[in-house]
Amino acid sequence: KVGWEHTQWTSRNLLANGFEMVDRNTICAVDDGEGRAFIVCIYTRGVNANTLTDFADYVLNTRGAVHKHVAGQSIIHKRGSKKQDGHMLMYGTHNLFGINATHEGLSPHWQPAAYLPSGERDELLYTKLRTLAAHMSALEKSLTPIVADVRRRLFDHMDPKKRHRITDECDGPALSITIGYVVGPHDDSGVINEAILFANRDGPMPAGHAWLFAIAGTIFVLPNARDEAVHITIAPEIYHGTLPTSSVLPHLVHGNVASA
């Protein structure tokens, strides 16, 4: 457990160091030095997340525990050196090719490497997972069509027979679910944008708490009303992360969810 309120990874500290709080549709971009804008992230409010909340309701209770009748997810307790609290579940394939010798004490093994499920696969879960993945892809095609096209062409090259895609309508091999989540600043190792859908299942946060996401000098306000959702797309190698819910109180365990 991390005492997040005692770290510098809090909204109060980031605001004191020049970050801006934003709760409107936003494109963050920087000058690439050649007169062009490099888009760092795009934040879109008012999107539909029914497929995400439906999936989360089936898999998780409101405090993040996996329902006993559901199996097929990989429960992630640690993400390398990243500090985190809350819960993360992964589905799909996390490396398509190459050799992996990163796990201490284990022999190198050839890819592809799948996220190992926590028991016999629940077919209704995977039906809902495919529906969510197709919805995530449709959102990306609508909101950031150039990113969607690059992702499709990349995975047509990496996975031409579509053996590792969650569904034919989804140009990606893996999908995550997080609940009540906070994670330290990190830059993911992906070669294409990360697309994240955030959905509120709990309604307003109690006094002294807020659901927030930080990236590129900006703190984005995540939905504070039940059934509201936002979508964020993030360029590769840009540090980001979901903040703790308070700068002075322990991080609040809550039932709001995200999928990337």
General description of the model:
The chain has 260 residues and is of the alpha+beta class. It has four helices and 15 strands. A hairpin with an 8-residue loop joins strand 6 (99-100) and strand 7 (109-110). The radius of gyration is 18 Å and the shape is globular.
Describe what is shown at a glance:
This protein is an alpha+beta fold and 260 residues long.
Largest sheet: 9 strands, antiparallel
Assembly type of the chains comes to: single chain
Q: Note the gap between the termini.
A: 23 Å
The secondary-structure class comes to alpha+beta
Radius of gyration: 18 Å
- Our count of helices gives 4
Low-confidence stretches: none
Which helices and strands appear, and what pairs or packs with what?
Elements: H1 11-16, E1 20-22, E2 26-31, E3 37-45, H2 50-59, E4 74-76, E5 84-95, E6 99-100, E7 109-110, E8 113-114, H3 123-143, H4 145-158, E9 174-183, E10 194-199, E11 212-215, E12 218-221, E13 229-234, E14 240-242, E15 257-259
Parallel strand pairs: 1-12
Antiparallel strand pairs: 2-3, 3-13, 4-5, 5-8, 5-9, 6-7, 9-15, 10-13, 10-15, 11-12, 11-14
